[in-house]
Amino acid sequence: MRTAFTALALLVGTVLFGSITLLAELLGRPHGPNSIYEKTPRWWASWLLGAAGVKVVVHDEHQLPEGAPRVFMANHVSWFDIPSMIAALPHYGFVAKRELEKIPLFGPAARAVGVIYIDRENRKAAFSAYDDAASKIRAGHPVLVYPEGTRGYSYALRPFKKGPFVLAIGSGAPIVPVVIYGTIEVNPRTEFRASPGTVHVHLLEPIPTEGLTYADRDDLAERVRQRMADCLRAHYGVDPAIEPVRPAVPQEAEQASA
């Protein structure tokens, strides 16, 4: 019942708040602090989290200085990471895979509120999008990136992509590592369900990037990964080792799909 109610809330909320956003864009409403483009994502996230019975607890909110350039980098384990991070952070832009842009209404509405789509199959286009994101960050607009690229099956960290760290170095903005914990229990990647729960968002100590070059990207990625791994180990006893191989599909499921 909870899953069906949440799915209905997702559909209705996306249509409602996406339409408001696109209408504002059509009417030429200005972007900026407290604009409709800041409000609709929060309304959408609150709507969805409320339907699922999810509470978001933010730790170390002092890492959110208003108007300061920041690149937030979070682990990614569930679709519910998205509304949880919208609820936790001030207005910011996502860096997201281009496939999301194809979702009717959601895709164009997300672009209107600041999502930057990355075509990971096109290296040249991807780095062009990162350049666009870097310029926005320097102008004072925070950006959230999931450096693992896609959702994982456990809280253990997986290898990080290089692109997000090239972005951070190009912007010169500090990286704020973020650990999300609790969204697997709400909505695991392997199941279509939504369960009530508490999601914890840890905003860790920023890591400066000023003065770094392209050659420093791997060392920077390791520093960020280590900080996130230390948090997962200290607070939740998570082994920071790279995530194991994808869970095997149950035999009956394999037979059913054959």
Q: Biggest sheet: strands, sense, closure?
A: 7 strands, mixed
Q: What is the general shape?
A: globular
Sheet-strand content, in percent, reads: 5-15%
Averaging pLDDT over every residue, what do you get? 86
Strand order of the largest sheet: 1-7-6-2-5-3-4
What is the element string, with H for helices and E for strands? HHEEHEHEHEHEHEHH
Number of helices: 9
Question: How many distinct beta strands?
Answer: 7
Helix/strand structural class: alpha/beta
Helix content: 40-55%
- Ranges where pLDDT stays below 50 over 5 or more residues in a row are 249-258
N- and C-termini, Cα separation: 30 Å
What does this structure look like?
The protein has 258 residues and is of the alpha/beta class. Helix content is 44%, strand content 14%. The protein has a seven-stranded mixed β-sheet, sandwiched between helices. Helix 4 links the parallel strand 3 and strand 4. The longest helix has 25 residues. The two termini are 30 Å apart. The relative contact order is 0.16.
